[in-house]
Amino acid sequence: MKKGQCLDSKRRNILKMFLPGFNVSSCSVPPYLYSCLFSKPFHLSINLSLNNKDKAFIANPSTGSKANSANTRSVNGGEAINGDQTALQKHVAFFDRNKDGLIYPWETFEGFRAIGCGIPLSVAAAIFINGVLSWQSRPGKFPSLLFPIEIRNIHRTKHGSDSGVYDTEGRFVPAKFEEIFHKHAPSSSNALTSKELSQMLKSNRIPKNYYGWLAAWGEWTILYYLCKDKDGFLHKETIRSAYDGSLFEKMEKERRSSHKAK
Question: What Pfam families has UniProt attached to this entry (predicted)?
Fold first, then answer.
């Protein structure tokens, strides 16, 4: 295009779109600019097709780090499970017996009893878990003598020396879950023995992280002795369901059914 040659209306509108400050009424458009914009057929395409998950995300962007459906959805290597709760929130929600978002020591006790733990262990679990996790889950708040745990902040209580299956926001990380069995289950790719479990706990230890060692040992030991099969195997699907809390619901229902049958 030579200097002094004016744009037609279509090209003038395109120029307005990309260069709102440019004097499009002028006939002095630089040749290089004309070449960039108009030397080839101009086509602008925007794909606005959205699936239901994307529409839900746009409608409620605050859930961006969580899933927007019952199916798992990957976010930064982790996944959120079952609606807008993370896997870790689902894991502990079973112990929130009245579903008010807080877990008190007596609810922890009741939850452990519901899955088959004896009274001494349930008492010890309630004292230790609520005593340690309450203040961690209530940042900026004055300590409460009732020792409640806030489920929405449960990711703040994540300890070291763990398997890494929960990420820093409490989401489930499938690759880390599979790693448990790739690394530590030579006898069976879908289950852990007591010895393999002990070796896994040792390999996960962070030096001098004694609280993390104790917490991880307690969690896995209770799970193993409650859920191992008759051959001493703790199965992959059992462990998987423990991470999202569905195992606890199942265990409680089975115990209720067995009591009714007696």
Answer: Caleosin
